[in-house]
Design brief:
Number of domains: 1
Largest sheet: 2 strands, antiparallel
Strand content: 5-15%
Number of helices: 2
Structural class: alpha+beta
Shape: elongated
Radius of gyration: 26 Å
Oligomer: single chain
Distance between the termini: 63 Å
Number of strands: 2
Strand order of the largest sheet: 1-2
Amino acid sequence: MPFNNIFILTCFSFFYYSYYFITHSLHSIVNCKNLFRNLICEFFVRNLNGKTITVEASPSDPSKRLNYKFNRKSMFP
């Protein structure tokens, strides 16, 4: 009988700490992704705000170009 109690306690501890570790790791990964996304958005807003860039729409026909003007409203609707 004591063996069963120890076994149950061990299983409970294993699953509890596994759940805690997995959820904590996922939370850290999500925070890390948000941090990188915010840094990238901040870079674009500071360096490209109000500037126009030209993108070649077709390499074979240089007359087809797309102009895109960056502004804070277009990046953060």
